[in-house]
């Protein structure tokens, strides 16, 4: 499976990519939401999107809204990972179309479990 990781923090990028590789999947890194959206539009062959919320250019909220408004990406699993949101915000993100939510720092077991649920 090909997993797109939209994350501006280098440490979180590397950690998520390592978890994806350890699962036997192929990670692709986007430094922000706009880049991730452009990558998805250019090559709609990604199986899952894992995205941070707070990023430059286009944040995770805007990315989820944009993707869910595009019929091409209505069913794509979207996993949000963030350290800076409360319960109400998590609920809002899920109602906007996010599939799952992971807290940062990301935990390997939780990450693996959520990614496996996407398939």
Report on the structure:
This protein is α/β, with parallel strands linked by helices. It has one domain (2-117): 3-Layer(aba) Sandwich (Rossmann fold), CATH 3.40.50.2300. Helices cover 44% and strands 20% of the residues. The protein is built from five helices and five strands. The chain has a five-stranded parallel β-sheet with strand order 2-1-3-4-5, with helices on both faces. Helix 1 links the parallel strand 1 (2-6) and strand 2 (26-30). Helix 2 packs parallel to helix 3. The protein is globular. The mean pLDDT is 94.
Strand content: 15-25%
CATH architecture: 3-Layer(aba) Sandwich
With strands numbered from the N-terminus, the spatial order across the biggest sheet is 2-1-3-4-5
> Which regions are unreliable across 5 or more consecutive residues at pLDDT < 50?
none
Structural class: alpha/beta
- Write down the Rg: 13 Å
Oligomer: single chain
What is the averaged pLDDT score?
94
- The CATH class designation is Alpha Beta
Element order, helices and strands? EHEHEHEHEH
Descriptors for this entry?
globular; 20% strand; 119 residues; five-stranded parallel beta sheet; alpha/beta
Task: Detail the topology: elements first, then pairings.
Layout: E1 2-6, H1 10-22, E2 26-30, H2 33-42, E3 48-52, H3 60-68, E4 78-82, H4 87-96, E5 100-103, H5 108-117
Helix pairs in contact: 2-3
Task: Tell me briefly what this model is.
By secondary structure, this protein is α/β, with parallel strands linked by helices. It contains five helices and five strands; from the N terminus they run βαβαβαβαβα. The protein has a single domain, classed as Response regulator (Rossmann fold), CATH 3.40.50.2300.
């Amino acid at each position: 499976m090909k997993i797109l990781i939209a994350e501006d923090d280098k440490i979180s990028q590397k950690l998520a990519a390592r978890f994806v590789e350890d699962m036997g999947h192929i990670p692709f890194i986007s430094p922000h939401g706009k880049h991730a959206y452009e990558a998805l539009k250019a090559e709609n062959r990604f199986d899952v999107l894992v995205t941070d919320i707070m990023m430059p250019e286009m944040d995770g909220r805007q990315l989820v809204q944009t993707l869910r408004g595009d019929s091409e990406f209505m069913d794509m699993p979207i996993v949000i990972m963030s350290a800076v949101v409360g319960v109400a915000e998590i609920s809002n993100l899920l109602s906007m179309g996010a599939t799952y939510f992971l807290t940062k720092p990301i935990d390997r077991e939780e990450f693996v479990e959520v990614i496996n649920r996407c398939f």
